[in-house]
Amino acid sequence: MFTRNNLLEAQRIVVKVGTSTLSHATGKMNLFRIEKLARELSDLRNQGKDIILVTSGAVGAGVERLGLKEKPKTIPEKQAAAAVGQGILMHTYEKLFAEYSQVVAQVLLTREDSVKRSRYANSRNTLLTLLKQGVIPIINENDAVAIDELKIGDNDTLSAMVASIVDADLLIILSDIDGVYTGNPQTNPAAKLISEIHDITPEIEKLAGGAGSLFGTGGMYTKIQAGKIAVNSGVTMVIASGGHDGVVRDILAGKTIGTIFTSRENRLQIRKRWLAFGARIAGTIKVDKGCAQAILNDGSSVLAAGITAVEGEFNHGNTISLITEEGREIARGLANYSAAEVRKIMGLHTAEFASQLGYKSYDEVIHRDNMVLLA
Prior knowledge:
Blueprint: E1 12-17, H1 19-22, H2 31-46, E2 50-55, H3 58-66, H4 75-98, E3 104-109, H5 112-115, H6 117-132, E4 136-141, H7 155-165, E5 170-175, E6 196-197, H8 202-206, H9 220-232, E7 236-241, H10 247-252, E8 259-261, H11 270-278, E9 281-287, H12 289-298, E10 307-311, E11 319-323, E12 329-334, H13 339-345, H14 353-357, E13 371-373
Parallel strand pairs: 1-2, 1-5, 2-4, 3-4, 5-7, 6-8, 9-11
Antiparallel strand pairs: 7-8, 9-10, 11-12, 12-13
């Protein structure tokens, strides 16, 4: 497990850089900052570390080239801007990294690449092969073709998914904010930076706000959600401001910069990692205190007797989320019954299934082998 004391030992590092870090307030590309980032990451690659860059900025670069005054609001307009901006952004990266003798590769991902297990595995194999060959993959969501229901949602989530896919040691998210605060520092002068977070509780999630910058999409909420993916995949995550020179080097040196989310010690198996973070969540079931304790303490299967509520419409085989009565997500797993069936049998013992459904396909609503714990 990586902490501030041993981050320098991290071998495989994913760095996510946001639009606000790559751009000036005018929306035009901040070439000075991009060049410094390329130099820093190139130096880490020269040290023998595996480096992956997850970048925003394609839409912003397209907005600039098209002469638009603000970020497009409709999906077709965003896709058009991204189509224009992708080439500009990648050309800039390729030119700057080449100055430091680095080979880069563009990788565009969509939600489907994580939802379908075969594409999840293919993405992993491609990225690992690139790293083995000494290439720095530069990844962005494929905004030019993705639609709302297929989009990963933001590059914070994308970076966490990538870190999970490649078994990264460390994920660094660079943005226009210094980290997680006890309040909104823009409106509350007394808000203090939280240096370390060891458990992403509902209280921590409540501290997150919405998207705040003109050209960016990801607020602190998406970064907290990215943290949940990272730490449960065995990846330590740091949120820090991308505006400081040498920020990546300082983070690896163990300096108290930003907010660090310490990872869980045991990494999830590839299948369970996909189950937890790759598959789309189709619904939610709420369990009582006794059921939650049995799941968390003993790794028990989810029995209908402990279920108190069902949200959404899911089918047999879909991935669903398990939450406590307080609303905390504690696990995800594959449903053995549909939402309609679970509503009929929740609160009942296994022997009573047949009288309610006319059949009993499984004893458990979710079997322990098809479930991954998140708390």
